[in-house]
Amino acid sequence: MKLYEIPRNTRIKILDENSFIPPGALLIEKGDILAFSHIDGMYSVCYKNNILCHLMASTNVELLPMHKFNNGIGATLCNKCHAIISTGFTNSLFCSKCFNELLLINENKKKSKL
Fold first, then answer.
1. Which terminal residue of the chain has fewer beta carbons within 10 Å of its beta carbon, N or C?
2. What are the boundaries of each domain within the chain?
C-alpha cells in the first residue's frame, strides 16, 4: 500500500528497501515503525521515536493496528475513525462501519475503471 493511501494519524511499517527522503532528513530503513501524521505535498510528516522525519508519499508501507493502554487492559482502535474496536489487543485495522465504507469505495473505483 502506498503512503498516500493510508489514513491520517496511524502507525506504519516501512516496506521499501530504499525510502526516498529529502536531503538532510532523518534516515529511514526497511522495517522501521513510524507514526504517520499526514501528507504535505510530495513528502509526508511522520515521527520516529518522537523525532520528525519525512518520507516520499509514494513509499510502500504496511498499516499497523492502533493499540492504546487503558489502565492495563488496553484497546484496539479503528485506524480511520479511532473508535474502540475491542478491549485487549487484536490485529484488526478498521471497525465494521469504516471497513464497509472502504469496500464500497474500492468497488466504485473498480466500476469507474471499466
1. C
2. 3-63, 65-113
Residue 48 has φ and ψ, to the nearest 5°, of: -115, 110
Q: Which three cell numbers stand for residue 98?
A: 469504516
Whole-angstrom Cα distance, residue 113 to residue 108? 9
pLDDT digits (tens, 9 = 90+) for 33-73: 999 999 988 999 999 999 999 999 999 999 888 888 877 78
Q: Which CATH superfamily is domain 3-63 in?
A: SH3 Domains (2.30.30.40)
- In this structure, what C-alpha cell is assigned to residue 112? 469507474
Other Cβ atoms closer than 10 A to 41: 7
